[in-house]
Amino acid sequence: MATSRERTVPYEIPEDGSAPVRAGIPEHGRVPKYYWLKARIAPLLDELGEGGVLPTERELALRYEVSRETVRQALRELLLEGRLRRSGRGTVVAGPKMEQPLALASYTEGVRKQGRTPGRTLIGLERHPCPPALARELAIGAGESVWHLERVLFADDERVGLESTYIAVERVPRLDRDFEPDSSFYGYLREEMGLCLGDADERLETVLATPREALLIGTPPGLPMLLIHRASRDEEGRPLERVRLLYRGDRFSFSVRLEG
């Protein structure tokens, strides 16, 4: 029999293989109360649909006969997984995660392919002497001028990430005068400067946002983030830019095609 801290969740086989094995339920079938509640809330999210307002913590606690702290823990996990999001109306059902290909394409192109409207807000565009380590990556001399472009990324007016780009001033000397901060940077390089991307090295990892990053993106500091480090080169193989891309883990997933 399940203890006061455990409940039994029915065994279910994932239909498409995308869910965890046995939906995360151990073989003995007993799980903590919050996980039992989370499994019960999941069908409710499907009924409400994207944008549907979830009942209050008090209402959920009464409906499922659990404590409000159990409700909070279940909702925290659903928020971290991207199933729910906070809004002015309360807690609402989130839409599906946006899928970005791990490919040499702009954020603008990736978001538009999914029927979403991309956007960016400029945080800063500054000119600095390039430190030695970055200078080696950009193949310029230490102390030479480098641009630092920082922007918040949007999808349908929702803040979803933070982009930080470093590029030598000699490659784009009029960046502060000719570039529209809410437009595609790669589009600017290609159309205005005649610079086309050749290839790039990328590294993907999970991190927690710093307090500053969380404030800019509008998320709790404890929200997992997907961080991409990119070093790209032009068609001649010459280093072009160094980019740090931070995406909300609850709103993004990444895909790549593998060939044998």
Automatic annotation (TrEMBL):
Residues 29-96 form the HTH gntR-type domain. Pfam families: GntR, UTRA. The keyword Transit peptide does not apply. SMART domains: HTH_GNTR, UTRA. InterPro entries: Bact_HTH_transcr_reg, Chorismate_lyase_/UTRA_dom_sf, Tscrpt_reg_HTH_GntR, UTRA, WH-like_DNA-bd_sf, WH_DNA-bd_sf. Keywords: DNA-binding, Transcription, Transcription regulation. It comes from the Bacteria. Transmembrane segments: none annotated. This is GntR family transcriptional regulator. It comes from Streptomyces albiaxialis.
